[in-house]
Specification:
- The complex is a heterodimer of chains A (about 110) and B (about 160).
- Chain A is an alpha+beta fold and about 110 residues long.
- Chain A contains two helices and five strands.
- In chain A, helix 1 links the parallel strand 2 and strand 3.
- In chain A, helix 1 packs parallel to helix 2.
- Chain B is about 25% helix and about 30% strand.
- Classes of the chains: A alpha+beta (about 110), B alpha+beta (about 160).
- At the A-B interface, helix 2 of A face helix 1 and helix 2 of B.
Chain lengths: ~110, ~160
Protein backbone atom coordinates (compact mmCIF):
# COMPACT_ATOMS: atom_id res chain seq x y z
CA UNK A 1 0.00 0.00 0.00
CA UNK A 2 1.59 3.30 -1.04
CA UNK A 3 0.70 6.89 -0.23
CA UNK A 4 -0.36 7.49 -3.81
CA UNK A 5 -3.37 5.52 -5.02
CA UNK A 6 -2.23 2.72 -7.29
CA UNK A 7 -4.96 2.76 -9.91
CA UNK A 8 -6.32 -0.45 -11.35
CA UNK A 9 -4.75 -1.45 -14.65
CA UNK A 10 -5.88 -4.39 -16.74
CA UNK A 11 -4.19 -5.78 -19.82
CA UNK A 12 -5.38 -8.63 -21.98
CA UNK A 13 -3.08 -10.83 -24.00
CA UNK A 14 -3.77 -13.75 -26.27
CA UNK A 15 -2.06 -16.96 -25.27
CA UNK A 16 -1.87 -20.25 -27.06
CA UNK A 17 -5.40 -21.43 -26.38
CA UNK A 18 -7.04 -18.52 -24.65
CA UNK A 19 -6.58 -15.33 -22.72
CA UNK A 20 -4.10 -14.01 -20.22
CA UNK A 21 -5.43 -11.22 -18.02
CA UNK A 22 -2.82 -9.12 -16.22
CA UNK A 23 -4.24 -7.13 -13.32
CA UNK A 24 -2.22 -4.46 -11.53
CA UNK A 25 -2.91 -1.82 -8.90
CA UNK A 26 -5.54 -1.63 -6.18
CA UNK A 27 -8.77 -3.61 -6.25
CA UNK A 28 -11.43 -2.17 -3.96
CA UNK A 29 -15.12 -1.33 -4.01
CA UNK A 30 -14.34 1.51 -6.41
CA UNK A 31 -12.32 -0.48 -8.93
CA UNK A 32 -13.60 -4.05 -8.60
CA UNK A 33 -16.73 -3.46 -10.75
CA UNK A 34 -14.43 -2.56 -13.65
CA UNK A 35 -12.44 -5.75 -13.11
CA UNK A 36 -15.61 -7.82 -12.75
CA UNK A 37 -17.12 -6.45 -15.97
CA UNK A 38 -13.98 -7.17 -17.95
CA UNK A 39 -13.58 -10.68 -16.57
CA UNK A 40 -17.19 -11.51 -17.33
CA UNK A 41 -16.69 -10.26 -20.88
CA UNK A 42 -13.66 -12.51 -21.23
CA UNK A 43 -15.60 -15.49 -19.86
CA UNK A 44 -18.46 -14.80 -22.26
CA UNK A 45 -16.07 -15.55 -25.11
CA UNK A 46 -15.53 -18.98 -23.56
CA UNK A 47 -11.79 -19.15 -24.02
CA UNK A 48 -10.35 -22.61 -23.77
CA UNK A 49 -7.85 -21.31 -21.25
CA UNK A 50 -8.05 -18.27 -18.99
CA UNK A 51 -5.08 -17.24 -16.89
CA UNK A 52 -5.55 -14.48 -14.37
CA UNK A 53 -2.30 -12.87 -13.27
CA UNK A 54 -2.73 -10.96 -10.01
CA UNK A 55 0.97 -10.75 -9.22
CA UNK A 56 1.01 -6.96 -9.66
CA UNK A 57 -2.06 -6.32 -7.52
CA UNK A 58 -0.89 -4.14 -4.65
CA UNK A 59 -4.10 -4.19 -2.65
CA UNK A 60 -7.34 -6.14 -2.63
CA UNK A 61 -10.32 -5.86 -0.31
CA UNK A 62 -13.31 -8.17 0.07
CA UNK A 63 -15.00 -6.76 -3.03
CA UNK A 64 -12.03 -8.02 -5.05
CA UNK A 65 -12.12 -11.37 -3.27
CA UNK A 66 -15.84 -11.52 -4.04
CA UNK A 67 -15.09 -10.90 -7.71
CA UNK A 68 -12.61 -13.78 -7.68
CA UNK A 69 -15.14 -16.08 -5.99
CA UNK A 70 -17.79 -15.15 -8.53
CA UNK A 71 -15.39 -15.71 -11.40
CA UNK A 72 -14.41 -19.07 -10.00
CA UNK A 73 -18.06 -20.09 -9.73
CA UNK A 74 -18.84 -19.03 -13.27
CA UNK A 75 -15.69 -20.64 -14.61
CA UNK A 76 -16.46 -23.90 -12.85
CA UNK A 77 -19.75 -24.10 -14.70
CA UNK A 78 -17.92 -23.86 -17.99
CA UNK A 79 -14.57 -25.37 -17.31
CA UNK A 80 -13.14 -28.75 -16.61
CA UNK A 81 -10.84 -27.49 -13.96
CA UNK A 82 -10.05 -24.40 -11.93
CA UNK A 83 -6.65 -23.97 -10.33
CA UNK A 84 -5.12 -21.62 -7.83
CA UNK A 85 -1.43 -22.28 -8.52
CA UNK A 86 0.67 -22.09 -5.38
CA UNK A 87 2.74 -18.94 -5.57
CA UNK A 88 3.59 -15.91 -3.51
CA UNK A 89 0.99 -13.82 -5.22
CA UNK A 90 -2.45 -15.08 -6.06
CA UNK A 91 -3.01 -16.26 -9.57
CA UNK A 92 -6.03 -18.07 -10.87
CA UNK A 93 -6.64 -20.00 -14.00
CA UNK A 94 -9.21 -22.23 -15.51
CA UNK A 95 -9.06 -24.56 -18.39
CA UNK A 96 -11.77 -26.20 -20.42
CA UNK A 97 -9.45 -29.00 -21.38
CA UNK A 98 -8.20 -31.51 -18.79
CA UNK A 99 -4.94 -31.79 -20.67
CA UNK A 100 -4.09 -28.14 -20.22
CA UNK A 101 -4.46 -27.66 -16.49
CA UNK A 102 -0.84 -28.00 -15.50
CA UNK A 103 1.18 -24.89 -14.84
CA UNK A 104 4.84 -24.41 -15.39
CA UNK A 105 6.90 -23.24 -12.40
CA UNK A 106 7.93 -20.21 -14.42
CA UNK A 107 4.40 -18.96 -14.10
CA UNK A 108 4.68 -18.55 -10.35
CA UNK A 109 6.26 -15.39 -8.98
CA UNK B 1 -13.26 14.41 1.15
CA UNK B 2 -12.29 16.95 3.78
CA UNK B 3 -9.72 16.12 6.40
CA UNK B 4 -8.01 17.77 9.30
CA UNK B 5 -5.46 16.84 11.90
CA UNK B 6 -6.36 18.68 15.07
CA UNK B 7 -4.16 19.74 17.97
CA UNK B 8 -4.45 16.39 19.72
CA UNK B 9 -3.41 14.56 16.57
CA UNK B 10 -6.80 13.13 15.79
CA UNK B 11 -7.31 12.42 12.12
CA UNK B 12 -10.83 13.41 11.16
CA UNK B 13 -12.31 12.87 7.72
CA UNK B 14 -15.70 13.84 6.41
CA UNK B 15 -16.46 11.58 3.50
CA UNK B 16 -19.11 11.06 0.88
CA UNK B 17 -20.51 7.57 0.42
CA UNK B 18 -18.82 7.22 -2.95
CA UNK B 19 -16.38 4.32 -3.39
CA UNK B 20 -13.92 6.58 -5.19
CA UNK B 21 -12.89 8.06 -1.81
CA UNK B 22 -11.41 4.75 -0.62
CA UNK B 23 -7.86 5.12 -2.03
CA UNK B 24 -7.59 8.58 -0.47
CA UNK B 25 -8.78 7.31 2.90
CA UNK B 26 -6.16 4.57 2.87
CA UNK B 27 -3.50 7.16 2.02
CA UNK B 28 -4.64 9.45 4.87
CA UNK B 29 -4.53 6.58 7.35
CA UNK B 30 -1.04 5.72 6.19
CA UNK B 31 0.11 9.30 6.70
CA UNK B 32 -1.33 9.24 10.21
CA UNK B 33 -0.07 5.80 11.29
CA UNK B 34 3.48 5.43 9.97
CA UNK B 35 4.96 8.49 11.74
CA UNK B 36 3.43 7.16 14.97
CA UNK B 37 5.43 3.96 14.82
CA UNK B 38 2.86 1.59 13.39
CA UNK B 39 4.49 -0.96 11.10
CA UNK B 40 3.72 -1.22 7.41
CA UNK B 41 1.77 -4.41 8.10
CA UNK B 42 -0.22 -2.95 10.97
CA UNK B 43 -0.94 0.16 8.93
CA UNK B 44 -2.14 -1.96 6.03
CA UNK B 45 -4.33 -3.97 8.41
CA UNK B 46 -5.94 -0.83 9.82
CA UNK B 47 -6.42 0.56 6.32
CA UNK B 48 -8.09 -2.68 5.24
CA UNK B 49 -10.41 -2.62 8.27
CA UNK B 50 -11.39 0.99 7.51
CA UNK B 51 -11.87 0.16 3.83
CA UNK B 52 -14.17 -2.74 4.70
CA UNK B 53 -16.11 -0.69 7.25
CA UNK B 54 -16.71 2.17 4.82
CA UNK B 55 -17.57 -0.26 2.02
CA UNK B 56 -20.17 -1.86 4.29
CA UNK B 57 -21.66 1.55 5.08
CA UNK B 58 -21.81 2.44 1.38
CA UNK B 59 -23.34 -0.89 0.33
CA UNK B 60 -25.59 -1.69 3.28
CA UNK B 61 -26.12 1.52 5.24
CA UNK B 62 -26.74 3.70 2.19
CA UNK B 63 -27.76 1.07 -0.36
CA UNK B 64 -25.05 2.16 -2.78
CA UNK B 65 -26.16 5.81 -2.90
CA UNK B 66 -23.12 8.04 -3.28
CA UNK B 67 -24.21 11.35 -1.77
CA UNK B 68 -24.48 10.54 1.92
CA UNK B 69 -22.12 11.46 4.73
CA UNK B 70 -19.62 9.27 6.57
CA UNK B 71 -17.44 10.51 9.41
CA UNK B 72 -14.15 8.83 10.16
CA UNK B 73 -11.84 9.57 13.06
CA UNK B 74 -8.57 7.96 14.12
CA UNK B 75 -6.81 8.72 17.38
CA UNK B 76 -4.19 7.27 19.66
CA UNK B 77 -5.45 5.64 22.85
CA UNK B 78 -3.90 4.11 25.96
CA UNK B 79 -5.45 1.05 27.59
CA UNK B 80 -4.32 0.02 31.10
CA UNK B 81 -3.99 -3.62 30.06
CA UNK B 82 -3.49 -3.68 26.28
CA UNK B 83 -1.23 -0.62 26.18
CA UNK B 84 -0.95 1.90 23.38
CA UNK B 85 -3.25 1.63 20.44
CA UNK B 86 -5.36 3.33 17.83
CA UNK B 87 -9.08 3.86 17.98
CA UNK B 88 -10.99 4.21 14.74
CA UNK B 89 -14.56 5.45 14.61
CA UNK B 90 -16.80 5.18 11.58
CA UNK B 91 -20.10 7.03 11.86
CA UNK B 92 -22.85 6.90 9.28
CA UNK B 93 -26.34 8.31 9.06
CA UNK B 94 -27.99 5.43 7.23
CA UNK B 95 -30.09 2.51 8.32
CA UNK B 96 -29.88 1.37 11.91
CA UNK B 97 -29.49 -2.35 12.42
CA UNK B 98 -29.34 -4.63 15.42
CA UNK B 99 -25.59 -4.91 16.19
CA UNK B 100 -26.03 -8.59 17.09
CA UNK B 101 -27.02 -9.23 13.47
CA UNK B 102 -23.77 -7.82 12.11
CA UNK B 103 -21.78 -11.02 12.08
CA UNK B 104 -20.82 -11.78 8.48
CA UNK B 105 -21.78 -14.92 6.67
CA UNK B 106 -20.81 -18.50 7.34
CA UNK B 107 -17.32 -18.85 5.87
CA UNK B 108 -18.03 -22.42 4.78
CA UNK B 109 -20.58 -20.95 2.39
CA UNK B 110 -18.25 -19.83 -0.39
CA UNK B 111 -19.92 -17.05 -2.32
CA UNK B 112 -19.26 -13.40 -3.15
CA UNK B 113 -19.95 -10.85 -0.39
CA UNK B 114 -20.28 -11.00 3.36
CA UNK B 115 -16.56 -11.14 4.11
CA UNK B 116 -16.08 -7.58 5.28
CA UNK B 117 -17.06 -8.10 8.92
CA UNK B 118 -14.82 -11.17 9.19
CA UNK B 119 -11.91 -9.18 7.77
CA UNK B 120 -12.51 -6.26 10.14
CA UNK B 121 -12.56 -8.57 13.16
CA UNK B 122 -9.37 -10.27 11.99
CA UNK B 123 -7.52 -6.99 11.47
CA UNK B 124 -8.50 -5.33 14.75
CA UNK B 125 -8.44 -6.21 18.47
CA UNK B 126 -11.86 -4.80 19.36
CA UNK B 127 -14.83 -4.17 17.10
CA UNK B 128 -18.09 -2.76 18.40
CA UNK B 129 -21.14 -1.67 16.45
CA UNK B 130 -23.88 0.41 18.04
CA UNK B 131 -26.85 2.46 16.89
CA UNK B 132 -25.80 6.11 16.87
CA UNK B 133 -27.73 8.84 18.57
CA UNK B 134 -29.76 10.66 15.95
CA UNK B 135 -29.73 7.76 13.49
CA UNK B 136 -27.23 5.64 11.67
CA UNK B 137 -24.56 3.42 13.13
CA UNK B 138 -21.32 3.93 14.97
CA UNK B 139 -18.47 1.46 14.59
CA UNK B 140 -15.63 1.71 17.10
CA UNK B 141 -12.55 -0.39 16.38
CA UNK B 142 -9.33 -0.61 18.32
CA UNK B 143 -5.96 -2.02 17.43
CA UNK B 144 -3.09 -2.26 19.90
CA UNK B 145 0.63 -2.12 19.23
CA UNK B 146 1.17 -5.79 19.98
CA UNK B 147 -1.39 -6.92 17.43
CA UNK B 148 -0.44 -7.88 13.90
CA UNK B 149 -1.78 -10.62 11.71
CA UNK B 150 1.69 -11.02 10.19
CA UNK B 151 3.36 -11.67 13.53
CA UNK B 152 6.03 -9.02 12.90
CA UNK B 153 7.06 -6.94 15.88
CA UNK B 154 6.18 -3.25 15.70
CA UNK B 155 8.88 -0.63 15.77
CA UNK B 156 9.02 2.44 17.98
CA UNK B 157 7.65 5.84 17.04
CA UNK B 158 9.72 7.98 14.70
CA UNK B 159 10.35 11.65 15.25
Amino acid sequence: MSSQPDELRIELADVNRGQLVHVAGEVDLHSSPQLRTLLLQVLEKEPELLILDLSAVSYMDSSGVGTMVELKRLAKHRADKWCWPACNRVCGAYSRSPSSTSFSPSWTT
Amino acid sequence: MSSRMNASDILELELSSDPHILPGVRAELRQWALPRGWTEDQTAEMALAIDEAISNVICHGYGGEKTHRILLSVRSVQDPEAGEGAEIRVRDFGKQVDPTRICGRDLDNVRPGGLGVHIIRAMMNCVEYSPAEGGGMLLVMRKYRGHSTSGKKPRGPTA
